[in-house]
């Protein structure tokens, strides 16, 4: 049972998530005139799972294996020093980012601070020819001038709500839910396993 807030509504179910990812895959291919020199880099923890799904869809559509990696931004976040125990994952990018078109993939775009941290982390690895942003959900409330190039769904929400993606691979269910933030809680990604 999830203890992170009362679920107010389910704004995307598994089928809607899949349709959105198929559309985003087509848009990435159309924008970049195919998959040549395109690489998908997912922001852990759920952005990398979405990047894996997008890579599979691009293979279905275009018949090519697109380069794919995962990016941990724990030490690039502007709240890193105020977090007592940041959850550290690993960055795995098995290709040179220099000269490539990198599509950063994340689950929910909110203030833009996660993407700013991801840009810093990515630039430490090399100099891409361009960086594009794909998100499953854009919930608004930007604090930084960051805009997604590819969006699955715009979900208006208030600051006292959380918009969370749950995926079959990590949570046993695929859905995007809006829930109330518990007192003392904060907006953010769902813990792995939906706990």
Automatic annotation (TrEMBL):
It comes from the Bacteria. GO terms for molecular function: uracil phosphoribosyltransferase activity. GO terms for biological process: regulation of DNA-templated transcription. Its EC number is 2.4.2.9. Residues 15-155 form the Phosphoribosyltransferase domain. It is an enzyme of class 2 (transferase). A motif (PRPP-binding) lies at residues 102-114. Signal peptide: none annotated. Coiled coil: none annotated. Keywords: Glycosyltransferase, Transcription, Transcription regulation, Transferase. It catalyses: UMP + diphosphate = 5-phospho-alpha-D-ribose 1-diphosphate + uracil. Also displays a weak uracil phosphoribosyltransferase activity which is not physiologically significant. Regulates the transcription of the pyrimidine nucleotide (pyr) operon in response to exogenous pyrimidines. Belongs to the purine/pyrimidine phosphoribosyltransferase family. PyrR subfamily. This is Bifunctional protein PyrR. It comes from Slackia exigua (strain ATCC 700122 / DSM 15923 / CIP 105133 / JCM 11022 / KCTC 5966 / S-7).
């Amino acid at each position: 049972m999830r203890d992170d807030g009362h679920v107010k509504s389910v704004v995307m179910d598994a089928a809607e998530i899949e349709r959105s990812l198929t559309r985003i895959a087509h848009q990435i291919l159309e924008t970049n005139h195919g998959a040549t020199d395109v690489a998908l880099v997912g922001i852990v923890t759920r952005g990398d799972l979405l990047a894996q799904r997008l890579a599979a869809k691009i293979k279905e559509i275009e018949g090519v294996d697109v380069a794919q990696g995962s990016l941990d931004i724990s030490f690039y976040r502007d709240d890193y020093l105020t977090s007592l125990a940041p959850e550290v994952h690993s960055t795995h990018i098995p290709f040179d980012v220099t000269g490539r078109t990198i599509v950063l993939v994340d689950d929910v775009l909110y203030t833009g601070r996660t993407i700013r941290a991801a840009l810093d982390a990515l630039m430490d690895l090399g100099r891409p020819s361009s960086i594009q942003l794909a998100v499953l959900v854009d919930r608004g409330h930007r604090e930084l001038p960051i805009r997604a190039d590819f969006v699955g769904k715009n979900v208006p929400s208030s600051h006292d709500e959380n918009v969370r993606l749950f995926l079959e691979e990590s949570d046993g269910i695929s859905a995007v839910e809006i829930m109330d933030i518990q007192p003392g809680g904060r907006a953010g990604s769902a813990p792995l396993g939906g706990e």
